[in-house]
Automatic annotation (TrEMBL):
It comes from Pristionchus mayeri. This is Cadherin domain-containing protein. It comes from the Eukaryota. Residues 439-560, 563-663, 664-760, 761-862, 868-974, 975-1077, 1086-1201 form the Cadherin domain. The keyword Zinc does not apply. One of its GO terms (biological process) is cell-cell junction assembly.
Length: 1407
């Protein structure tokens, strides 16, 4: 009756139970590449039902170590997530099946949802080197350890595991390598212990060939050939073409590539290219020889013509030069190709510690996508940052560092006709501490099978620069390969070893005997971590243990014989590297039979071939094009008996003859069913139609099983057996009538057929079961084995006639497990039945003898009268001591003769015991106690417990639950003590700047965020930690803001149970200001003798828009140039040029014709090198003077004392006196009689007009200052023109002495010469006076005559006086022009009047 009432209550609870989850099942697919903490994403969100009114506890059953559910307690309507906790275990399996158990914390209602997790299968791909063949150079004698070259894998992005590298070759002992990921550096090593000394064993041949093999942990391999040769003497430098031609459009773009000039010979690494260009429109890249246009706006056929020439020069480090001519053809028309443009002008990329993906650079949609190649044009060259050349994806390939790392690169996207460059700033976040690192990560050791237990196999060394580091070594995985190299899946190999940690070393010790272990190698993956810094990413190392075979104890072993090998193998010269050649095999040992295991290795021919050590398959590892005949020798070793045999291989290389028959495919692959009968057609190989008769042949060890006809159709001759030969490899050969042939490898994979019957391991099986066993109780497991792996087995039960009732009481599932399907009461005794297995074609039978044990009166049942209403629920607070009493379970009263025994189910032992690792139960009283302390942060909040009750031969069990009560015993923590954010200064109010997150291991506690001090600028969201902008930002007033955020478990910022985080917000400037020049206008003087190409001046401008601590680039150009002379201004071009990036102004051509004038050069500075930047302008005024404009003066004081202040005072005196600008061009020592005076200096001065800026001639300024001194102006130094101070040459001393000795004679001659000149001058003046007087008298006479005539015949009435027109200046005019224009106008009529106009033309600079 009581059981009936309990059933009704349980049924009522089920009916009233509400739905806790919105989903009925979960099925997700996990992609490859997820790391610890990654979320497993699904198309449908996982959400707690919105109809429930309580919080729900979530857990996965059974406890799943690869994945977990977060959060473990979720309120109504909230989503939860599946997270990866152990990626290694996750990817070690293909699928997982769990149940998501949801339990209401108030009502106790529960709901279970099936969870199916499928792991994406990654077959992996072979690692591929970026080249099939490398060629490096080395010195003749290796006297010191040096780097020879670098080899890389190109598809390392797609391979998640690491690589093991092996170097082969006849001189491989003279070389070494070091690897980092996909990059291998080849090193040359000197003699052992004799660096710097030459020995015969150090000398290498002129050419050495090596083979480098890369092998991934998944077993995929790849090889590349490395040829190391002595460097040849450099040949003279020369261009590949003496003449280059290119075509330029009138609408070409800026920096458009035109042609690439290439110079060969010399030292290639030091060749520098330059360009001789009179147009100034082009540039030649100094390192790669790329010719591009810099000023496309000036390309015009009217100025350049239809064709013009440029000259390219190349020079190497030795000074050797060579020239080449570039012919440029100019054409009119539109350029139709679209330019390449990135989506952004610059990129700022950031990666967290441990992340390799940085982001992808994309082009704008308007840009062409076809044939675009991405590359790093400026920046790193050591492969720390790599870019995918097709997708533009950037990846960080370096190691995790303590501090942040920054990299500035320039990425170029290019096609054959266009390119674009974008700057990229990369920040790799550090973790704030040093990461532990192994000294060596790939180690190979050898261990004997007889190695005693507790011996040290290897000692791992690791380092960590943190002062408080505590290194912990741990074994992650242990795998093995059997004697034929097949990976074994036994998960218990880790029991063979133990790892003892000691400071910075970890000793791997043998824990169990391995003498009987049939393995050829063991691979142990070890991890080292820092216990003091749990946030650091652990480092891993791999140890490969080669297990040596035991020596045979037999005195005699059977002779090992190799199978027949053809006398000559023929291979084509164009056979691809890595192609199959032949399979070497041996006959099994008579003593060992089919258990014989062999080891294959090459003793000769290793330069061209490689052999699989387990299967004997020979493949090529180098090109055969330059070979005619090769010999290889294979050594076959018998692992069980240590005997060996040598097998020679003679290989003939057939040259590839032109116009020979060619197969339509370079290789053939085909799948053939195992059940295919002989004489059936398998496949067809054919060559391209040549019009000739083709004969086909099959070659190889497996060729005897097939035959081929004249059409290339391949037929089966003998039966196939997948179990002995799953893959068949041979060669198809096509021969024409002339004997020319082609060879193609053929690979056939045998598909399994259902041709083998399944069988039981034992034909007779015994079992026993209690007659009162519950329905579904286990009886026996009859598992069958089927050699055909593709077959599906189906089990059934057959009973004899006398036991027909038994047919309905037992059942068998798809795994052969027999269970009870009904009550067995009354069937005590021994019964017989048969288990039948069938694969659809074959069947097999196993007989089962089952004993049904009779019932006794002792039927134990649990007392369900508990406080939880029939449920056994025990609670314990976390951190409670061990042996804590949880409670007691009781049983219903039984007869005193029944012996009761309580037990607990142990999931590890799969049996009921009294003590488990977690709990213990008193077998008589049923009292439960803990065997360990519980932690709510590590243990599930609800732990299922199964309690058993045994009485005589009867057994009963019931489920219970242990609930761990969480306490607030863990402090809040932030991942970092300081966090940085960047925000533009024009961000609006309400902008989300970023988010902070504190971690609390007490998952039941709520985390709240507060500002440590009130702020008018920033606000933090209390619940989610988002930082919101409240006020306006101005970088000019404050470029950084710092404040503290407090995380607590309460609504106030109490320091108890709280964590502090400093937030620093960097305000980023907006590019809204043009660059500012350091001057407004600048004046310079240029000697008219200055040659073209000279640097005149470097100007500088600063951009106020900058990133903190880093100035932005400023680009300069000449916006316009005018020439001013005598107040006349006109534009000029091509006189000056400016370097775009440095601001250097250069003179481009001679300025002899511009003496006395001034150039006004308008300089533009922009923050971008295109038309979209902000510009500012400044003027440089360049005055052109001649040596005749230089005034020389002598002042007291040595040139070293002529400071800027002293010179300024001298210039000020001259400027005030002469009303002009003064410029100092030189300061020199005063030299007299060939000696320099130490206390006097000679100044070279140039005077310019204040308004016009034009230079004033020296003679004029000397005369003016002489007149000023004569007028009483004091303190003016004596000055002379430049010609008044000739500088004697080094050979004038004798001349000066001679002149001094002849001084009296010169004085006399000078006196008489002066008298003669004075006499001639006086005579000339008198002649001029008399001549002028004579002309004046004649003119007066003519004028009087004209006046008289005009009075008699006046044309202008009343005009009787002469009008004189002057310039209005009281000073004496320097020149007068008389213009009798009216007289000339009326002379022809005989009547005229006279008007005289006088115009005085005065130079404004004349006094």
């Amino acid at each position: 009756m009581r059981q009936f009432i309990s059933s009704l209550l349980l049924l009522g609870l089920i009916v009233c139970e509400e739905k806790l989850l919105e989903i009925s099942s979960i099925q997700v697919k996990v992609p490859r590449g997820l790391t610890r903490g990654s979320e497993i994403v699904s198309d449908i969100p996982f959400r707690v039902s919105t109809t429930t009114s309580e919080d729900v506890a979530l857990s996965l059953v059974p406890n799943a170590s690869p994945i977990s559910v977060s959060p473990s307690i979720s309120p109504a309507g909230k989503t939860f997530h599946l997270l990866v906790t152990d990626p290694d275990e996750l990817y070690a399996n293909s699928s997982f099946t769990y149940e998501l158990q949801a339990i209401g914390l108030i009502t106790g209602y529960s709901q279970s949802v099936p969870v199916k997790v499928d792991v994406e299968i990654n077959e992996g791909e072979n690692p591929q080197f970026d080249k099939d063949y490398y060629e490096f150079h080395f010195e003749k004698n290796l006297l010191k350890r040096s780097e020879i070259g670098i080899v890389k894998l190109v598809n390392s992005y797609d391979l998640a595991d690491s690589f093991a590298y092996t170097l082969y070759g006849s001189h491989a002992d003279k070389f070494d390598f070091k690897s980092r990921g996909s990059v291998v550096t080849i090193l040359g090593i000197p003699c052992n212990g004799n660096e710097g000394r030459i020995h015969n064993e150090c000398t290498l041949p002129a050419t050495t060939r090596l083979v480098l093999e890369a092998k991934s942990l998944s077993g995929n391999t790849s090889q590349t050939v490395i040829t190391v040769a002595q460097p040849q003497r450099s040949s003279p430098i020369r261009f590949t073409h003496p003449l280059y031609e290119t075509t330029l459009s009138t609408v070409s773009g800026l920096l458009q590539p035109m042609v690439v000039t290439i110079a060969k010979g010399g030292d290639q690494s030091s060749i520098i290219y330059s360009l001789s260009d009179k147009t100034g429109l082009f540039s030649l890249h100094p390192t790669n020889g790329l010719l591009s246009i810099q000023h496309p706006e000036f390309v015009d056929t009217s100025t350049l013509g239809m064709t013009f020439n440029l000259t390219a020069r190349a020079v190497d480090a030795s000074g050797n030069t060579q020239q080449a001519t570039i012919v440029v053809h100019v054409k009119s028309g539109m350029h139709t190709e679209r330019k390449l443009l990135f989506e952004q002008d610059s990129y700022n990329l950031t990666a967290a510690p441990g992340e390799s993906g940085l982001g992808q650079l994309r082009l704008q949609s308007s840009s062409t996508r076809k044939g675009v190649t991405f590359s790093i044009s400026e920046g790193l060259h050591d492969d720390i940052i790599q870019i995918h050349n097709r997708t533009g994806e950037l990846r960080y390939m370096g190691e995790i560092e303590k501090e942040d790392q920054t990299f500035d690169l320039k990425i170029m996207a290019s096609t054959t006709h266009s390119f674009a460059i974008v700057p990229v700033h990369i920040v790799i976040r550090g973790i704030g501490s040093c990461v532990p690192k192994f000294a060596s990560k790939d180690i190979i050791v050898t261990a004997s099978r007889t190695l005693p237990v507790d011996n040290v196999i290897h000692e791992f060394a690791a380092s960590d620069c943190d002062a408080d580091a505590a290194l912990k070594f741990q074994i992650l995985t242990t795998t093995a390969k059997d004697m034929i190299g097949t990976p074994l899946q036994d998960p218990d190999f880790s029991r063979l070893f133990r790892l003892d940690s000691n400071d910075s070393a970890g000793r791997l010790v043998l824990a169990e005997d391995i003498s009987a272990l049939e393995v050829i190698s063991l691979r142990v993956e070890v991890q080292v971590s820092d216990e003091r810094h749990p946030g650091e990413i652990p480092d891993r190392a791999n140890l490969l243990i080669l297990v040596q075979a035991l020596q045979s104890s037999q005195s005699e072993v059977p002779l090992l014989q190799a199978n027949r090998v053809p006398e000559l193998l023929t291979l084509p010269a164009n056979l691809a590297v890595g192609s199959y050649v032949f399979t070497v095999s041996a006959k099994p040992s008579i003593a060992e039979g089919r258990r014989s295991e062999f080891w294959f290795e090459l003793n000769n021919g290793m330069q061209f071939f490689d052999i699989n050590s387990n299967t004997g398959e020979v493949h090529t590892i180098a090109s055969l094009r330059n070979e005619t005949e090769l010999h290889a020798q294979v050594i076959i070793s018998h692992l069980n008996t240590s005997s060996s045999v040598q097998v020679p291989l003679h290989i003939s290389i057939s040259p590839v003859i032109e116009r020979a028959p060619i197969f339509s495919s370079s290789f053939y692959e085909h799948f053939v069913d195992e059940s295919t009968q002989p004489a059936a057609k398998i496949m067809m190989v054919a060559v391209d139609d040549t019009g000739d008769t083709i004969r086909y042949q099959l070659e190889g060890t497996d060729a005897e099983q097939f035959e081929v006809n004249e059409k290339g159709e391949i037929y089966l001759r003998t039966e196939l057996d997948r179990e002995t030969k799953p893959k068949i490899q041979l060669f198809a050969k096509a021969i024409d009538s002339l004997g020319k042939f082609d060879i193609a490898p053929v690979t056939m994979t045998v598909v399994d057929a259902n041709d083998s019957p399944p069988f039981f391991a034992a034909r007779n099986i015994g079992a026993s079961v209690m007659e009162d066993a519950p329905i579904g109780s286990f009886v026996v497991r009859a598992k069958a084995v089927d050699p055909d792996s593709s077959s599906l087995l189906r089990y059934d039960i057959r009973v004899p006639n006398q036991s027909s009732m038994l047919f309905k009481l037992i059942s068998v599932d798809g795994n052969g497990t027999v269970t009870t399907a009904g009550s067995l009461h009354g069937l005590d005794g021994i019964v017989f039945f048969e288990v039948i297995v069938s694969d659809g074609v074959h069947t097999h039978i196993a007989e089962v003898n089952m004993e049904i044990i009779g019932n006794f009166d002792c039927h134990p049942t649990f007392d369900l009268n508990t406080e939880q209403g029939g449920n056994f629920v025990f609670e314990i607070q976390e951190n409670a001591p061990t042996k804590f009493a949880l409670g007691q379970v009781n049983s219903e009263p039984l007869d005193d003769r029944c012996h009761l025994e309580f037990a607990l189910f142990d999931s590890n032992l799969q049996d009921f015991v009294h003590d488990t690792s977690d709990l213990s139960i008193d077998e008589q009283t049923g009292e439960l106690r803990t065997n360990r302390a519980y932690d709510a942060e590590r243990d599930p909040s609800r732990i299922p417990v199964v309690i058993g009750l045994r009485a005589q031969k009867h057994f009963s069990k019931i489920g219970a639950e242990l609930r761990v009560i969480d306490l607030n015993d863990n402090p809040l923590t932030f991942a970092k003590e300081e966090i940085h954010f960047r925000v533009p200064e024009n961000s609006r109010k309400g902008t989300r700047i970023g988010s902070v997150e504190a971690h609390d291991k007490d998952f039941m506690d709520q985390v709240l965020y507060h500002m440590a001090e009130p702020s008018d600028t920033f606000y933090v969201d209390t619940e989610n930690g988002d930082i919101i902008l409240l006020g306006e930002l101005d970088r000019e007033r404050a470029d950084t803001h710092s404040f503290m955020i407090v995380a607590t478990n309460s609504n106030n910022s109490s320091p108890i149970q709280s964590a502090m985080l400093q937030v620093i917000v960097h305000v980023q400037d907006v590019n809204d200001n043009p660059p500012h020049f350091l001057f407004d206008d600048q004046r310079i003087l240029i000697n008219d003798a200055t040659v073209g190409g000279a640097v005149l001046l470097r100007i500088s401008a600063e951009d106020p828009d900058y990133v903190h601590g880093e100035e932005k680039d400023v680009f300069y150009r000449i916006a316009g140039t005018t020439f001013e002379y005598r107040r006349m201004v006109h534009p000029t071009e091509n006189v000056f040029s400016i370097e775009e990036e440095t601001g250097e102004i250069r003179l481009e051509k001679s300025i002899k014709g511009f003496t006395g004038g001034r150039f006004n050069i308008l300089i533009a500075a922009s923050d971008r090198n295109d038309s979209n930047g902000h510009e500012n302008f400044a003027t440089v005024k360049a005055t052109i003077y001649a040596p005749s404009d230089v005034v020389i003066t002598e002042v007291a004081g040595a040139p070293s004392r002529m400071t800027k202040k002293v010179l300024g005072e001298i210039k000020r005196k001259f400027s005030m006196a002469t009303d002009s600008d003064v410029h100092v061009t030189a300061v020199e020592f005063v030299t007299k009689a060939g000696e320099s005076l130490k206390d006097a200096s000679t100044l070279s001065l140039v005077f310019t007009g204040r308004d016009s800026g034009e230079p004033i001639p020296a003679e004029k300024m000397v005369a003016k200052m002489d007149r000023l001194r004569a007028e009483g102006v004091h303190n003016l130094p004596l000055v002379k023109s430049h010609r008044g101070f000739p500088t004697p040459s080094s050979g004038q001393d004798d001349t000066i002495a001679m002149v001094s000795s002849l001084a009296p004679v010169f004085i006399v001659l000078l006196f008489f010469t002066t008298l003669l000149v004075i006499a001639i001058f006086i005579f000339s003046v008198m002649v001029c006076m008399y001549r002028k007087r004579y002309r004046s008298a004649n003119k007066l006479k003519d004028d009087l005559l004209a006046i008289n005539n005009s009075h008699n015949n006046s044309v202008f009435p009343g005009s009787g006086k002469i009008i004189a027109i002057k310039n209005g200046n009281d000073r004496q005019p320097s020149s007068t022009i008389s213009t009798p224009s009216i007289m000339d106008s009326y002379y022809k009529g005989g009547f005229y009047d006279v008007q005289e106009a006088k115009m005085h033309v005065v130079n404004p600079e004349d006094d």
